[in-house]
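Question thread 4412

I'm putting together a teaching handout and wanted feedback from people who do this every day. The idea is simple: show students a protein as raw sequence, then show them the structure tokens that encode its fold, then repeat with a second protein so they can compare. Below is the first pair exactly as I plan to print it.
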Amino acid sequence: MTSLSLAKKIRRIAGNTIFSVLFTKRTTGEKRKMVCRLGVTKGVSGKGQHYDPIKYDLLTVFDVQKGEFRNICLDTLESFKAKGKEYAIRQGN
């Protein structure tokens, strides 16, 4: 599954609800569980990002625990849970 199709699937399933993800951080190699949300506009200036996150296999979300925007590394995403259902991601198909 490509990063773009995976990002679209997460957006379609999670919508504007809070969901969790489990992925491996690229910088340190450690596993990270994040509770996040899509569609948050608080603190957005309207200028946009200086790059396209999907070109780097990233999905920008709002980390509800830290109260800041973060990126999920889609190529190391293991699973996500939304609306009470867990979805396992198979990489390298």
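The second pair follows. I'd like the answer to focus on this one:
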Amino acid sequence: MIFTSYFGNIRRIKQAGIVPVSIARYNPEFFQGKTIIELAPTHKMFGMTWDQFDFHYKNMLARLDARQVVEKIKNYGKGRQVALLCYEK
């Protein structure tokens, strides 16, 4: 199973045996786990309104091969559940 969460929950995520995987462009210093940079918003997107961000992020995701992304997530999880992390609660 794949969950979504944020870096503030990392302690609980690890305690639950869930593998944390970042989808952030820039990870907090304490995070030493895996990152799927293809899912991270671009630097330019950080200055956009939510509507603009949503539009550009959806377009960015539409260009990805969903099967490849899911396979990467599964490989990082190694049979365990995975939580995709960003900064937003």
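Top answer:
Good format. For the second protein you could add a caption like this: The chain has one domain: 2-86. The longest strand covers residues 2-6.
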